[in-house]
Amino acid sequence: MLKKLKIDSFVVAIIVSIFIAYFFPQLAAKGSPVPMGTITSIGVSLIFFFYGLNLSTEAIRDGLKNWRLHVVVQSSTFLIFPLIILLFYPLFKNTSNETLWLAFLFMAALPSTVSSSVVMVSMAKGNLPAAIFNASISGIIGILLTPLWLTPFIKHSGVETDFTAIYLQLITEIVLPLILGLSLRRLLGNLARKYKSKLDVFDKFIILLIIYKSFVQSFEENIFTSVSLAEMFTMIVLVVVLFYVMYFLTGWIGRLLKFNHGDRITNQYCGTKKSLIHGTVFSKALFGQASVVGIILLPLMLYHAIQIFIISIYASREGKKQSEQEKLSAAKKA
């Protein structure tokens, strides 16, 4: 089992980006001649433009038929997960750890991932069209719901934020490019799908730039001196616990609603995932130039690495089990 596990290259790249931000902050430091903010803003707009080009109309049309599954997945993503974090707000309100709590709420309110959700569902022989539908539609729903979850609490966290600027940035950098991409699907959709692997690399490059810039700002302001090793360890434990709470909860809901194997897998894998791409983009819009962005992204980056590691193990195991059952079924029919 351990020999077959591969370290995700993107997780490694994130760690390297953080180290570069610490030792070589010049490109994103205050007074830098490199317009890192403008570069990342243009990059974010292109990410959502390409997202619109790659969105499958067929998958969405076919996916609408399985409405029960979609309601459960989106409810897990945008209602159940944030509500779990919200339960603990009274314990952190007006304390020194309120920003860390806000970071967990930010992670919990994010959309599901697209690529890794689809890949893992496919590996486990789940309902692939439903996974594509839910992962795709989740990103669109998140543009509206994620800021709605966060804005009431940002006001009380001490982070200076212009909410008019937040929504203006969301519209100009995310919504309009997405609409433009959707409108040009028939003209450029095939070209975008042809070069999808290269566009995925571009997406990740922009995300790494945003992470680099965010951590440079946090290091400049000495934000991480307020986070002890004990708090970091606690954060890792909490991230793992949260993942398993959502994983077993979505599994229980699937059994309660008598989902078949394919729908149960899609529900668990899509309903527990959180998108690092949307997270870095939304952090840029919601928190702007605030130095706490590095801390805000910490739980999400930990969750991203852990969800890939754990789900890949389960997906491989489920895929093998289904293959064996299919062989037995075929042998019986023969």
Please give the number of β-strands: 0
CA gyration radius, whole angstroms: 20 Å
| Helix content percent band | over 70%
Named CATH architecture: Up-down Bundle
Q: What is the strand content?
A: under 5%
Gap from first CA to last CA:
32 Å
Low-confidence stretches: 1-5
Q: What kind of oligomer do you see?
A: single chain
Number of helices: 15
Bulk shape = globular
Query: What do we call the CATH topology?
Result: Na+/H+ antiporter like fold
Explain how this protein is built:
With 334 residues, the chain is mainly alpha-helical. It has one domain (8-323): Up-down Bundle (Na+/H+ antiporter like fold). Helices cover 78% and strands 0% of the residues. It is built from 15 helices and no strands. It has helices at residues 9-23, 36-54, 57-63, 67-86, 89-92, 98-108, 115-123, 128-154, 163-183, 185-194, 196-220, 229-256, 261-272, 276-287, 293-333. Helix 1 (9-23) packs parallel to helix 11 (196-220) and helix 8 runs parallel beside helix 14 (276-287). Mean pLDDT is 81; it is low at 1-5.
State the main characteristics.
Na+/H+ antiporter like fold; mainly alpha; globular; disordered N terminus; 334 residues
Would you summarize the structure shown here?
This protein is an all-alpha fold.
What is the topology?
Layout: H1 9-23, H2 36-54, H3 57-63, H4 67-86, H5 89-92, H6 98-108, H7 115-123, H8 128-154, H9 163-183, H10 185-194, H11 196-220, H12 229-256, H13 261-272, H14 276-287, H15 293-333
Helix pairs in contact: 1-11, 2-9, 2-10, 2-11, 3-8, 4-6, 4-8, 4-13, 6-15, 7-8, 7-13, 7-15, 8-13, 8-14, 9-14, 11-14, 11-15, 12-13, 12-15, 14-15
